[in-house]
Amino acid sequence: MNMVLEDAEEKEVTNPDVKMWIDDLKDVAYTAEDILDEIATEALRRQLLVEFKRVAESNTFGTGEDKKKVVDLLLSSDAGGNEMCVIAIVGMGGIGKTTLAQLVYNESRVKQHFDLKIWFCVSEEFVMPNVEKSIIEAATSLPCPKFENPEQLQVTLKKNLSGKKFLLVLDDVWSEKPIHQEFLSQLLHHGSRGSKILVTTRNESVALAMKAIATHHLKLLSKDDCWSLFEKHAFRDGSSNADPEIKEIGTKIVKNCKGLPLAIKAIGDLLWSESSVERWTNILKSNLWDLSMEGTNILPALRSSEDAFDASLKDKAYLENLVLEWCPPEEVLGITESQRGVLENLQPHRNLKSLTINYYGARERLNLSNCKYWCALPPVGQLSSLNELVIDGLDGVVTVGPEFYGNNSSTMKPFGMLKSLRLKNMRNWKKWFPFGDENEGGSFPRLEKLYIVTCPKLRGRLPVHLHSLAKLEISGCQRLEGSLLIDSFSVLTHIKILGCGKLESLTLAEQYEHDGITNFNISCLRELIISGCSSLMSIPMVVLISTLKTLEIDNCKKLELPMH
């Protein structure tokens, strides 16, 4: 088709009919491109769903009987009162304590049994006020307010637990201090009879210090379960029917993992795309297995997943795929010093091809830049303290939707504290889907500034109900078409729209035309700048007669301004 177009474009100078035909053909070509992009997007979405399902299933090896026993403990008779209702899961690092606790936490019977569920990742520092704030957020589905004194926090905490049968999961506990056991006891007194606290820990002494009434010890995976788990992660079709030499090497690698599910999954994922016997042999013979690490038996290169190390990976020349994963977003309130140290000291080798960072609990500002091959955004909407977010140069992202906001089952509304959001240079981004029912709102309650810059394929509507939005800037979004509804941005002070060639109008809600009622506060608007919007035809009169201090309109050829 390109050859035909080149020939035709030479003739269009002298033949107007050829020019018209070329324009029509280009329109058809653009439409076809859009359809193909949509098909590709749907295919990618389905591929991701299959992959997520594969990973979820792979996490359950050897946990069926363990899950049943822990669930039975949580649902046991409530007649004994709340004084001693702590249950512990104990096992070495990487054995699957968090995975088991998550399976229990999401079990349907557990969901039905408890009025309120809270998950909190404790790690090395047991900060009691953070646990209390997390409980309040889970109970109210809102970010925890700031309290002037500790007494107000205690009153609010007691109010939100009173009369409720709750389950509190404290993941990765290290403390043996009596004050923390007394803290757990006090929490149980606030709730109703039958409330339970589930603790995961590496140390039996922690379970004793927390006065657990029952302790479930996790054992290493059996030989058969180890191999089945490795197969799922290391081989493309989930089976090792291919090269017998690779299977033999894989057997030795699994033996070196010593029954630890986390080690098996991580090494399996590392080898998933590899078909070279030499590559598998290099992993088997590397010094990865020889390094010691104080306080745990898990492999050194995997310690990041347990959130307890100071990472320095610059000497791992064979490493091509690296995954750093913390507790899921609903489990974390802020970040610890050890989390921050992981990324500050990370020095991967130049051969590293893929770096994945999941659930990093950035506290106030997060910048995701130039991750060209990411096809989906991480669930940063569940970072409860995030104030500023910059997403720049993620060319692989086509849609922004549920994966961005986070798990719908979470008790927190997404982006509860976010004030500034910048989306830049996302060259294949097409659609922005709302959180749940867009008529209900719920996301971005405090967002004040929104910048969308150089996203040439973006089209459709922006999220509505941004009631705190004061500054809106959109530039270089050539396919953003139709109308931009500004009625729900009730306190806008600055609007800047540049280079949006297909945008046709700025509009208010339809009822405004009939009864003069609108959410848009015209007294707030101070600046309106529009340039390079060649299809723009109308701007509401109410906007033009507002208390504007700056009005700039340039290169908008179709715009007709009202004369009165």
Offer a concise description of the structure.
This protein is of the alpha/beta class.
Kindly state the number of beta strands.
19
Mind summarizing the main beta sheet?
8 strands, parallel
CATH topology of the domain at 64-217: Rossmann fold
CATH superfamily of the domain at 64-217: P-loop containing nucleotide triphosphate hydrolases
| CATH level-1 class of the domain at 64-217 | Alpha Beta
CATH architecture of the domain at 64-217: 3-Layer(aba) Sandwich
The gross shape turns out to be: flat
Sheet-strand content, in percent, reads 15-25%
As residue ranges, the low-confidence spans are 40-59, 291-306, 308-314, 329-338, 511-517
Task: State mean pLDDT (0 to 100 scale).
Answer: 75
Biggest sheet strand order reads 8-9-11-13-14-16-18-19
Head-to-tail CA distance between termini: 50 Å
| Gyration radius, in Å | 28 Å
Number of helices, where a helix is a run of at least 4 consecutive DSSP H or I residues:
17
Task: Give the fraction of residues assigned to helices.
Answer: 25-40%
Question: What structural class is derived from the secondary structure elements?
Answer: alpha/beta
